[in-house]
Amino acid sequence: MEDNNSNTTDAQQSVARHLPGLLRVFTDGRVERFIGNDFVPPSINPQAPVASKDITIHPQTNVSARLFLPQTTTNHRKLPLVIYVHGGAFCVSSPFTANHHNYVSALVAEAKVVAVSVKYRLAPDHPIPAAYEDSWAALEWVASHRNKSGPEPWLNEHANFERVFLAGDSAGANIVHNLTMMAGNPNSELPMDILGACLVHPFFWGSIPVGSEALNPDMKGMMDELWAFVFPSMADYDDPRINPVGEGAGSLEWVGCRRVLVCVAEKDVLRDRGWLYYNALSRSGWMGVAEIEETEGVDHGFHLSGLGTQKTIDLIKSLALFFNRDPPPSI
Question: Coiled-coil intervals in this record (predicted)?
Answer without folding.
Answer: none
